[in-house]
Design goal:
Elements lengths: L1 H15 L10 E2 L3 E2 H24 L2 H8 L14
Antiparallel strand pairs: 1-2
């Protein structure tokens, strides 16, 4: 299953290289350059990818340790003078 997430990350990295839009002067909705519109979509895709990675691959034991409450701090043996 982890290979699927790795493939998703590689796909997102590959899609970031938008060399095919460098010379395209088209406008989206009449005001937004196509390259900027592409990066808006790419940013949303990157955010969703990070959400998926954190949701499914975050180590559960870290959350369980946090739910147990704060770790008590041992009293200091140093004297303050």
């Amino acid at each position: 299953m982890k290979w699927l997430f790795a493939a998703l990350v590689l796909l997102v990295i590959a899609l970031h290289q938008d060399f095919w839009l460098w010379n395209n002067r088209s406008l989206v909705l009449g005001i937004l350059p196509i390259g900027l519109a592409y990066h808006v979509g790419y940013s949303i895709l990157a955010s969703l990818t990070m959400w998926v990675l954190v949701t499914f691959l975050w180590p559960r034991h870290l959350e369980e340790a946090d739910d147990a409450g704060p770790v008590p701090i041992a009293p200091s043996t140093e004297s303050r003078s």
